[in-house]
């Protein structure tokens, strides 16, 4: 080992002894013993005189078979010289005027003495000393230099212990708390870095459970159905599944399935040949071909017209199709992910969605949690959106604690998308660098989202949302338990109509829930959910 490396290892060993999570007296005794081994000294000690409000500190080596350093007193003349010069080297104490009156230092043979001053709280008042057998021609300069470094470290350690003690704590308690905090921050940062890289921000239990499930899904090629309210991040989860799958180096293609005609959907997904229809001036590759070998996300799958559903079912089952206007059968290898915020079960019952297609795509569902079920994620998301806004606009805005507290109390029916819009709108209109709770539009009744979602209300200790017609609230109850909406209605009016129909059916059935379910063409479980939702007390006849 090189000499420089050896010295570095020795400094590390004494630093480790100095900053161990033990009481100060134990720490310093371990320190002087470690130092005596490093410097191959016989005896040594550390002395810090008492100061205002502090006790005297002493530590000494404990060598078996020889007198302890605690039995030796450093002469006052030697101490004065140490305090003045900051160091002292005496090649032989038996022939030194400084030690002539110290009987205990005589009779032990030729002995060298080295010492360095210790500075605590910016005052030099202590010393660290060692003695060793005298060696002819030995250069003590290197030892006294090393001892000076050790003395400086000891002074810092003593000051740190005293500072922590002033808070009514021990050094061990402080270190344990700091380590726990570092571990927690490290784990949290690691989780957040991972999630941010996948386009997902948060660390709530509900979100982490969904992320873990998505990663398990990524290990196979099974079809996945992502379900959740609007704005819950279905596209982000689809990307996460793709990025953690064996197809990650292949294309990830996304396509929204809005209410397009059958011909337009067919052309978009399967492509078309030149001249297939008016305006088809060239051959076009569809989304399935573009995603070959990779992943294809079909969002808003509940909106595709019934006439096209049969063609989609064939592709899902056999992986083959023809371009519009073509006769050649094309075969592709695509991992399919579907997404919807629609109540597909109700759509099947109403004849709007093919039952066979429903069973084909819903084998591996993943329900994404709404923002109101993701405790603690709103501040993380809000800060991330504000940081993005700052980077895009060259601003330096930040949230006051009151602003984050206010955001955390909002239910955000539009979920992450609504939260981002809220942050951007508020940041755009902010008149100072600090955004406070009074800056939000809802404080002045200017939040149009709250007007749209007047169906948000509290019932039985949890939040429920009367989503617009054709959407699925997915509030933690199974999809089959979600009562149907009246077509084209939403909010309070829909609630009143549904409640009247429920009560009417119950009265017709003599308040027998099973009979009422048959009248309404629902399951008893759905009727029970509706009773709780509308606060209807069941009469016993």
* Total helical elements: 19
Strand order of the largest sheet: 2-1-5-4-3
Determine the N-to-C terminus distance. Answer: 94 Å
Shape assignment: elongated
Largest sheet: 5 strands, antiparallel
Report the uncertain regions.
Answer: 455-494
| Beta-strand residue percentage | 5-15%
Considering DSSP H and I runs of 4 or more, what fraction of the residues is helical?
40-55%
Evaluate the radius of gyration.
Answer: 38 Å
By secondary-structure content and strand pairing, the structural class works out as alpha/beta
Describe the structure.
The chain has helices at 3-18, 24-38, 76-85, 141-165, 171-197, 205-218, 234-243, 262-270, 287-290, 306-318, 344-349, 355-361, 377-393, 401-409, 415-429, 448-452, 491-508, 513-520, 524-534; strands at residues 43-48, 57-60, 87-90, 111-120, 123-133, 224-227, 252-256, 271-272, 284-285, 295-299, 320-322, 329-331, 335-340, 365-367, 398-399, 434-435, 457-459, 462-464. The strands form six sheets. It has a five-stranded antiparallel sheet, with helices on both faces. A five-stranded parallel sheet has the order 7-10-13-6-14. It has a two-stranded antiparallel ribbon with strand order 8-9. A hairpin with a 6-residue loop joins strand 11 (320-322) and strand 12 (329-331). By secondary structure, the chain is α/β, with parallel strands linked by helices. It is elongated and about 110 Å long. The longest helix has 27 residues, at 171-197. Helix 13 crosses helix 14 (401-409).
